[in-house]
Each structure stands twice: as C-alpha cells, then as structure tokens.
Amino acid sequence: MAQPAPDFAHLLRIEGARLGDVRPEHLDLPIPHLEGWTVHDVVGHVGWVAGYARQALEAAPDALPTKADVPEPPPGPEVVDWFGDAFAQLLTTFDQADLAAPRPTWTGPQKASWWLRRVANEVAVHRWDAEAAWSSPTPVAPRQARDAVDEVLDVFAPHRLQLSEFDDAAATVHLHATDIDDGEWMIEISDTAISWSEGHGKGDVAARGPVSDLLLMMWGRIPPSRLEVFGDSSLLDRWQTSATF
Q1: Could you point out which of 92, 158, 207, 226 has its C-alpha 20 to 30 Å from the C-alpha of 197?
Q2: Contact between residue 113 and residue 57 where contact means Cβ atoms under 8 Å apart
Q3: What is the Cα–Cα distance from 30 to 177, expressed in whole angstroms?
C-alpha cells in the first residue's frame, strides 16, 4: 500500500533549524566523507540552494534560473546569518506559494511542491554532512529517508547518473530497509537505461540496512561496507562512482 508523502514543510523547518544552529567554531571543520568540503561549505551551499529554489518558485514555468542569478555565500562566520536569512525567505515563499502551480525545475516544469520535496531532502542530507564533522550524526528520519530514496531514483538517476560506468547487460540491485515495513526496491541498470520498482526480488547485489543508511549510501555519504551486502558489491561501488549528486 502506498504511504502518504512526508510532511515536507515540517521536515524542512526541522532540518533547516538544526543546520542553522551550527557553532561558529565548527565552520572550518572538514567533512570527513566530502573531500575538500568544510562545514562552512555545506552551510553556504544549502543557503545558496535556498536562494535558487526561491527564485525558481517566483519564475515562469519555462524560466529556470541560472547559477549566476543567485549570490554566492560570504566567507567567514557571516555565512551562518546569511544562511538563516536565505532559509527564512524560502520558508516565507513556500508559505505563500500555490504548490500546485507549475514552476521551472532542472527536470522540466513541475508543480511547485517538487521544490518543497527537493529542498527538504537536500537539507536533511547536508545536515547529516555537517554533523558528521564534529559528532556521530543523527540519521535522516525513516519516512523522509524512504521518500528520498524514491527521489534519487525518480529525479537524480535519470538525469545525473553516469550510466557509462555500467555494462551493456542490465544488472539488478535490491535495496532492503530493515527498519520500516515498506522499504524494498528493485533497480535494473545498464549503460543506457535505469528502471526501478518497489518490492522484493533477487538482485545481482542486495544491500540491507536502516533506510537512512541506504539513502546515504546512494548519495555517496557512506561506503557500501556499512551495510549488509550480498552478491556483486562492485555494482554498489560503481553506483557511487557514477552518482554526480
């Protein structure tokens, strides 16, 4: 049975507030799993995404903003207040938006609610990134993580997965979340196409673990070895190499 969508507006506020509470002394800490990134980079990136999403929500359906349309984050500790302002403006824009109205996205015109889901999931993963710099990070909430796995397969994989990393013969990946009842996916992937469905099946490789960990593996945040893996683990390594998100 299909589950209702998470309350993205609520989750966005929670995760945004957690990221906005970053301490100034943490800003220069390196992100252990993102080479060359610091906490400052993460906070600045999410603030930039908030500004970009706000511009998209205010644009015509065929007028996707460019990267140059959004100011870059400031250096130093000013980035925390800058993030807070950008995030508050985005929340106000969402509160006032018609979420059923078409707006531009990098997948073509979609309902404005596409951006609410996209930014909520973006902030959740990057909040995890930031926390990993100074502590053991809190997992992404299970219902949100489950939806975010769907989003990876629906939104990112068709547009940003480098399929050339895979062979011409389709391989199958089974993901199995161990902490929710409806968290199983079958993914078929080759060097020309990717498709997926929900449910149980036998894949060339299977990965089992908490749904937050499955999501983080798909985003390249944790290695497949953090999960229980059966079969051809190189397929998961190739996924991480080919995922440009």
Answers
A1: 226
A2: no
A3: 30
